[in-house]
Structures are given as structure tokens and as C-alpha cells.
Amino acid sequence: MTDNIRVLCFTSCGTKLLNMSSSPKDSLCVLTIHAHPDDEASKGAPTLALYHDLGVRTVLVCCTGGEEGDIQNPVLRAEGGPFYGLNPEQEKQKLALIRPGELAESARIIGFDEVVMLGYWDSGMADSPANENPDCFHQADLDEAVGRLVAIIRAQRPQVIITYGDDQRGYPHPDHLKVHDISLPAFQRAGDPAWYPSAGPVWQPLKMYYSVWSRTRLLAVNEAMLAKLGTSPYDEKWLNRPSQDDRITTRINVASHMAARSGALRAHATQVDPNESWWFGLNDEELARAYPFEDWVLAHSLSGYPNEDEVEIDIFAGIEDVISLRDGVSATKRLTNPDPVVAQ
User: Fold this and answer.
1) DSSP-derived secondary structure for 76-127
2) pLDDT (tens digit, 9 = 90+) per residue, 120-143?
3) CB under 8 Å, gap of 24 or more: what pairs does 329-335 form?
4) pLDDT tens across 211-266, in order?
5) Is the residue at 75 inside a domain?
6) What whole-number distance in Å separates Cα of residue 322 and Cα of residue 208?
7) Are 176 and 38 in contact (CB under 8 A)?
8) Mapping DSSP to helix (H, G, I), strand (E, B) and coil, where does residue 162 land?
9) Which of 15, 80, 101, 170 sits 20 to 30 Å CA-CA off 177?
């Protein structure tokens, strides 16, 4: 089941802000699941960079190689560029060779300790011919794909998993939908010995978060763009996307780590135009002033939930208490129905 999983490992040289010999975070791990190379840059890069610098082990699961992507940087097709004069088929072949290197550089910038490829082909946009490729993620057998992810979870042993949400009306890409489809059953089955007995010793994650681009953030960035540039790339279609702000449980201040986002995006040179205001209309400092947070939805938790009138500021909130209970150490605060069995 796991024979086709490709693993890339990168040694990070990022400065750790905690004394790992004495910090309880030395056993903590967050695993984030993305559909394609570059998704890790546009969704949550500052949060993962922040936790890496705090000494938390950070793992990226990338489900496809992004082989069906388009060339978004016009300079690369210009004379002297790597795609100059190539026909569409030649472009696609060259792109498939380039994107792994872009992902490696992006992961280095963010500070991922390990990158694991789930091993599927990019499915392309909705209703495109690529959707019919039997090797694409969209066509993958659900049970097999969940089994691959379970094997990774058991090997990496994260307490926190970050994935895509159950409401993707704003961007219903087949691979993004599939990421969600496999994440919840993998979260549930990783700790159950009845599922995938050959996939390694069981491990139960404690929390699962959904990424969300909040309306509050969108409006704040839009206003900052208008103030700076007199225009904004966010049209009515974007400004009128369904809001999920009422679901947000967690808000992480990432003002100090905005450079992880911009640097990782630029690493994906085939996918991002460095002159595009969509991504770079505001520099890191301006973006941090406009909206210094990343927002998350705590979708599933075995370590408690914040109260309705509270917003979490740490994705590991409550988890160290569960681990302390497991180890027989007094918890710093009492959780609702803590279960020491789930953190193995």
C-alpha cells in the first residue's frame, strides 16, 4: 500500500527560539496536508514557519506533483527562458521536472523538517481531460489514498493535523476536495489498530484544523491595496465569496513570519508572477500591518475546544495537558474529559 510513497527530507538550519533540551515542545509535531506544490506557500506558510522556529517538528504531505499546472510567470516563456519555444506537451514535460525543485526550495524557506509525497498525479482543473487520468488523485481509490495517509501519520506521529475544509465553494478544485475527503478518515483511523494493520504502529492525532481565508482578512488586505495602489486585484467575485468567519476558532499572530509566505511563493517560479499584485501588492511589513493573523477552524479535537466566546492563539492549546496526563505529570490546567490514551 505504501510502496509508491515518495519521501523528500530536508535538514533545516532555522534558528530555534526555545531551549529544546528543556522545552515540552520537543515532542510536538504538526503535519499539514496540501494538494499541490505551491499550496503550502499560499496557505499557512507563516504559521508553519512560526512553529518551526518555536521548536515544533513540521511535516508537509503533498498529495500530487503539480504536473498539470500552467506557466504563470511570462518571463519563463520569453526568449532565453526555460520554456521559450516549447509546445504545450514539451512544456508539460519540463514542468513536471522543475516543480519538485521548487517545492524543495519552498519547504526550505518555510522550515519544514520533512516533506512526504503521497504519490499521485495532478488531476488538473475541474472538468479538464486530466481528471480522467487513472493515475490522478481525483481518480484514486479512497480507501487506498486514506491508507497511504494513515501510514504517514503513524510514521510522523503528529499531535496536530492541518488540512482543507468541508466548505470549498470558493475554489472547488478536484484535488483540494480529495484532500478533505481523505483527511478526516485518516485522522480517525490512524489510531485504530483494526485499520491498515501493515501501516505501522497506531498513532492518534489530537486535533484537526481546517485552513480558511477569512472575509475579515480579505477585506483588510483589499483596503490596504486600495490605499497603496488605488486599485485591488480582488474583484466582486472574490469579495462576495461565502464567508466562513463565524466558524473561526483560532487566530495565530504571524506578523513576524510573513516572509515565509512571500519567499516560498517566489520559490515556485513557474507558478507565480513576481510582479503580480495578487500575491505581492503588499510587501511583508504592509501585509502584517493590514492583517497580522492566520485564521483556522478547529474541526475535530480530542483535547477540548475553546469556549464559544474565546479564540485560540495556539494550535497546540490543550495538547500538552493531555500529554502530561499520559506521562503521569500534573496538568497545568484541567481539560474537559481529557483522554490520556489518545496521545501515544
Assistant:
1) GGSTTSTTTT--HHHHHHHHHHHHHHHHHHHHHHHT-SEEEEEEEB---STT
2) 999 887 778 878 888 889 999 999
3) 335/303, 335/304
4) 998 999 999 999 999 999 999 998 888 788 888 899 999 999 999 999 999 999 99
5) yes
6) 15
7) no
8) strand
9) 101
Check residue 324 and give its pLDDT: 60
State the Cα–Cα distance between residues 299 and 242, nearest whole angstrom. Answer: 18
Rounded to whole angstroms, the Cα distance separating 127 from 87 reads 23
User: Residue 132 to residues 68, 144, 149, 322: CA-CA distances in angstroms?
Assistant: 13, 18, 22, 45
Q: 95-101: list long-range contacts, CB under 8 Å, 24+ apart.
A: 95/66, 95/67, 95/69, 95/71, 95/270, 96/65, 96/67, 98/270, 99/37, 99/65, 99/66, 99/67, 99/69, 99/268, 99/270, 100/8, 100/37, 100/65
DSSP string, 241-261: SPP-GGG--EEEE-GGGHHHH
Q: Is residue 331 part of a domain?
A: no
The three grid cell numbers given for residue 86, joined into one nine-digit string: 516549447
Distance CA(142)–CA(267), nearest Å, equals 31
Let me know if residue 50 belongs to a domain: yes
By the 8 A CB rule, do 102 and 95 touch?
A: no
Contact 269, 283 (CB under 8 A): no
Tens of pLDDT along 64-79? 999 999 999 999 999 9
pLDDT value at 207 more than 50: yes
CA distance 122 to 88: 16
| Domain region containing 59 | 6-326
Q: How many domains does the chain have?
A: 1
Residue 213 within any structural domain of the chain: yes
Q: 311, 214 in Cβ contact below 8 A?
A: no
Do 229 and 277 form a contact (C-beta atoms < 8 A)? yes
**How many angstroms separate the CA atoms of 280 and 229, rounded?**
12
pTM of the model: 0.85
Q: What CATH number is associated with residue 260?
A: 3.40.50.10320
Report how far residue 99's alpha carbon sits from residue 65's, in angstroms, rounded to the nearest whole number: 7
Cell of 123: 488531476
Amino acid letter at 16? Answer: K
